[in-house]
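During the reporting period, our protein records have gained a structure token line. A sample record is set out beneath this paragraph:
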Amino acid sequence: MLGEDDQRLLAVVTALEEDVAWHSPARFQVVANIARDLLTGPQADANEQLLQEEGEAWNELHQDTLHADEEHRAYLQRGTTIYDWSGRGGTAVWRAERQVSLQDFEDWLTGRTQADTAEYLIRPPGWFLFRPPGRQAAAPAPTPTGGLPQPYAAWTDEGRALAFPYRNRQAAWPLQRCPHPAGFEPVPGAEALLAAAAGLRPSESAATSKPYSSTGTTGSTLRTIPASASRWTFQWARRTTSASSAPRNAGAPWPRQEDLQHLRQARGNVREFTHVATRLNSWIGSRFRVHKAMWRWPGLSVAGEFLAGTSTELVQWLATVAHARSSRIVEQSMQQAWSYAFDRYAPPGDRSSRRRM
């Protein structure tokens, strides 16, 4: 009997083999090499039939390709350029883990899991979620066309519930129990929370449920800026950034004119500007900071404000900000997986150079 960790690892490996692809131009060259081997010569017709049927012979060929030895792997990759695949492998594993975590999250949200707890940790990126009491997603039997039956379909059309794909059907969230024949009804006032999800593709709905199901996260602070923020806010950020990067070392030599020109050319790229500044003067470059025109939201989480009866306008605005920030955190988490794949086993002096390969 596999433990919980082993079951998760097996699910990640399965997702990595069956559903998650590596994004690289070299993939097309490898596909061309495989097609050239299989679809030419006396066995071309039989091999074409094998590929079309995708039966047991296809599965064996698939596994042989996935677990090819070093010599055969080099043969499949002929014509590709030398490349360190660590970063792409790291992000592929991240996407597989993310896929498995979202599937488990959907099971938790619909109450399918045996341990019906109010808390859930979704990783990556490491969000700690809390489901308000009485809130649940429902996945009713689909219609003949695969859609949600009534009244769930009407609720989603009216913006009172969010629909997302779940296993071989669709689910709706957030709902609460009621004595009606359907057994559920939309949570009153949830339209303000769900407005931020308008326009999302169905496959994105469950992945962005965090702002609507969480009353708190670890390692994540909601930083906001009103849409009507005045120009002085950005001017303050610019002055603060300039002040933090100004020379404060009395003994530092004044930059030459050509050095200043290099800094001007790099000012639109924070990373490049820091690199140039560090090359000219390590003391200045190491102290360069960018101050964004944002501040920490002093109130409750989005769900907390909703449960506290905060105005609809404010809840909707906070949900929109939380959704945008959540999407950015997810992207940054995958970027960190790229870097970590290079850095995990590399000597300290090799890390930055390997990432640039």
About this structure: The chain is about 50% helix and 10% strand. The radius of gyration is 26 Å. Residues 212 and 303 are 6 Å apart (CA to CA). The first strand starts at residue 119 and ends at 122.
